[in-house]
Amino acid sequence: MAEKLAGWDAVCFLMFFSSFFGTIYILTPMLPLMLIRPKWYRAVVDQFIAWWETFPVALLELVYGVRVRLTGDVIRPGERTLIIMNHRSRLDWMFLWACLLRRGHLSKEKIILKTSLKNIPGPGWAMQVGCFLFIKRRWDEDEKIFKRMLNYLTSIRHATQLLLFPEGTDLTEYTRKRSNDYAKEYNLPKYNYVLHPRTTGFVYIVEKLRKAKQLDSIHDITVGYPAGVLQNEMDLFAGRFPKEVHFHIRRHPLRTLPNTTGQLELWCTTRWAEKELQLKEFYQRKRFKDLNLVDGRKSANHLRKEQVKAILWLSILFWGNFVVMMLYLMVTNFFILKMTIIIAVFYIIEGLIFGGVEDMEIKLHNAVWGKLPWK
């Protein structure tokens, strides 16, 4: 029962109260900046969202004792990159925040997610304001979404670090079977630790960003859970947290990538074949082969342990007190209650009219600032 209560506390704070009130009373007042200067708006809002993203990391590491270990290459300051990662659980992206926090790049990350998540009150609204990419897993529609979002981020020269899960879904017994059925049909090897990647979106993003001169590298990240895995939201509710999360990072400069569509597809599938072997060894050894932990001595951009811990404790203090204060004001102050309802209704209505804050942002940008410089 104690574990379930602990998990319930995490869900309440992470996925509802902090994101709900943060979106309404911190992010929403920033929306008028869209009309003044889109690049300023993105910079300010991205910093606020990054500050919230430290809160889940703080709870996982300081409250639930999850240890994060990093090996491999570093993500360089200001680097425009596509991050590709295996999708072991539905919540890999949340654990990746712990990795990116230590690199100082949380504010640049944009995640590619399924569109059903964008209308969840609180976290969904925050992700809309964050200009995340919501896809429908139908390429005829997703291509238009990718084109619109990448055109916009490129036009404002946003140093985006775009997170893509080429597998398209998390690894379960069911998805592993589907992947291996696909492998059998096309005479491909069967995998136990990864799913066969879908390369269409990957190739499109690389070619689009390379053409716009807005891509410096690809960071291939492999995630492993040597002792327990937080598979989905129900595990979060139940308080079943992994003891450790390991990330192994390999940086591939743009100049090393192939130039043709077919070669890019092969490049991606080759990385996944390597991941299968890498993860097989990982689960035998309970660590990645490269034992050189990334730390402050190897990268000036990497935060020291003391700095990380200070940021995490400040995050808990800030967001914990913020949520308590807002709940108190909701109960005692009718004006705050009324404003909360009005702003919540606004997000519902704008979703129906514009399709989301991120689409409203792009439409306003195009209307006010004219045509995009490239297509």
From TrEMBL:
UniProt entry keywords in alphabetical sequence: Acyltransferase, Lipid metabolism, Membrane, Phospholipid metabolism, Transferase, Transmembrane, Transmembrane helix
Keyword hit for Transmembrane helix: yes
Annotated GO MF terms: acyltransferase activity
Phospholipid/glycerol acyltransferase domain: residues covered: 81-203
Transmembrane segments: 7-28, 48-66, 310-329, 335-357
One of the record's GO cellular component terms: endoplasmic reticulum
Transcription as UniProt keyword: no
The protein's name in its UniProt record: LOW QUALITY PROTEIN: lysocardiolipin acyltransferase 1-like
Organism field: Branchiostoma belcheri (Amphioxus)
Taxonomic lineage from the root: Eukaryota, Metazoa, Chordata, Cephalochordata, Leptocardii
Designated gene of the protein: LOC109470992
